[in-house]
């Protein structure tokens, strides 16, 4: 497949890398960009050889948000029928781990894309923000919902209502990002983590992600129930038996994904 707005490559065993590639517009996300990302993730979901995906920008910027030039001139009927929403939902449905490597600006839809990932690794030059208020709009791809869950009410309100950005250290302290690194190492750190996760038993990884995502959707008792069911399902996998046997035999496990 050839793509216009992204680069796609297989890195190491089981790790797929998507790189945003619209440098002239600071990786602004037009409809096509989101469609290409969603297509790649959908294909990766169906490919048993792919275990983890990493999404990255450049060393200077992740993504400057929705493509403002594309948005200009649209009205409510266009926004209602906006295909970007369906691409975003397809990205959300990716069932394997998605890691975002964020250097520089992650603004508006770019911040929202990073938050669609399961884990964010940030360069110390990263800037996260939801500046939509400056354009007379509000975040439209999850920013009012995911940011508040990630950083809490006060900081999320401050960011969305004022449009002010936060730096990587603040994002780390608030729990938006898992790790901060020098920008030239961000991608390598994300890939390293991807390699570690790719070597884990894939069914357990998938169910762990699925169960954790439920934490945002359900009450605690229902979430605990969901977790228990996922835990029970795993008792039927060969990888679970292999993991337990390998521990007792003091050897490395050989996971097969069965
Ligand atoms: N859409 C379209 N084009 C964009 C863009 C965007 N979001 N962001 C930057 N560009 C373009 C600029 O228009 C400029 O193009 P020209 O060279 O043709 O003039 C080029 O990228 C370089 O931009 P700057 O000269 O501004 O670069 P900079 O390094 O000085 O600043 C920046 C970078 C801080 C990211 C600045 O470009 C900026 O503030 N961009 C807009 C950020 C923004 O408001 N994002 C929210 C968009 S709305 C949204 O995302 C809605 C949603 O929730 C889904």
Describe the protein.
α1 (about 30-45) runs parallel beside α4 (about 85-90). This protein has helices at about 30-45, 70, 75-80, 85-90, 110-115, 145-150, 155-160, 170-175, 185-200, 200-215, 220-235, 240-250; strands at about 5-10, 15-20, 50-55, 60-65, 100, 105, 120-125, 125-130, 165, 180. The chain is built from twelve helices and ten strands. The longest helix is centred in the N-terminal third of the chain and has 16 residues, at about 30-45. It is an alpha/beta fold. The strands form two sheets. Strands 1-2-3-5-7-10 form a six-stranded mixed β-sheet, with helices on both faces. Strands 4-6-8-9 form a four-stranded mixed β-sheet. β1 (about 5-10) and β2 (about 15-20) form a beta hairpin. Bound molecules: acetoacetyl-coenzyme A. Acetoacetyl-coenzyme A binds near residues 25, 28, 65, 66 and 135. The site of acetoacetyl-coenzyme A (CAA) has 21 residues, from α2, β6 and α5.
Quick take:
The chain is α/β, with parallel strands linked by helices and 258 residues long. It is built from twelve helices and ten strands.
Topology:
Elements: E1 6-11, E2 15-20, H1 31-46, E3 52-56, E4 61-63, H2 68-71, H3 76-80, H4 83-92, E5 98-102, E6 105-107, H5 109-116, E7 119-123, E8 127-129, H6 143-151, H7 153-162, E9 166-167, H8 168-174, E10 179-181, H9 183-198, H10 202-214, H11 220-234, H12 238-248
Parallel strand pairs: 2-3, 3-5, 4-6, 5-7, 6-8, 7-10
Antiparallel strand pairs: 1-2, 8-9
The structure holds acetoacetyl-coenzyme A.
């Amino acid at each position: 497949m050839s793509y216009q707005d992204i680069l796609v490559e297989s890195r190491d065993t089981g790790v797929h890398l998507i790189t945003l590639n619209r440098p002239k517009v600071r990786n602004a996300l037009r409809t096509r960009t989101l469609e290409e990302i969603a297509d790649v993730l959908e294909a990766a979901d169906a490919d048993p050889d792919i275990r983890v995906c990493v999404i990255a920008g450049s060393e200077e910027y992740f993504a400057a948000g929705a493509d403002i030039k594309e948005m200009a001139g649209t009205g409510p009927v266009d926004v209602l029928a906006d295909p970007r929403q369906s691409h975003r939902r397809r990205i959300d449905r990716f069932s394997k781990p998605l890691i975002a490597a964020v250097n520089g600006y992650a603004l508006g839809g770019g911040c929202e894309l990073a938050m669609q990932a399961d884990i964010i690794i940030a360069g110390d030059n990263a800037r996260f923000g939801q500046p939509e208020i400056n354009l007379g709009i509000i975040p439209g791809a999850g920013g009012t919902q995911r940011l508040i869950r990630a950083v809490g009410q006060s900081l999320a309100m401050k960011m969305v209502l004022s449009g002010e950005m936060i730096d990587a250290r603040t994002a780390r302290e608030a729990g938006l990002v898992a790790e901060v690194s020098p920008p030239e190492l961000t991608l390598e750190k994300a890939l390293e983590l991807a390699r570690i996760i790719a070597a884990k038993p894939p069914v357990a990884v998938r169910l762990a992600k699925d169960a954790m995502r439920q934490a945002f959707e359900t009450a605690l008792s229902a979430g605990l129930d969901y977790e228990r069911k996922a835990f029970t399902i795993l008792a039927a996998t060969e990888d679970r038996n292999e993991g337990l046997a390998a521990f007792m035999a003091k050897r490395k496990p050989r996971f097969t994904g069965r």
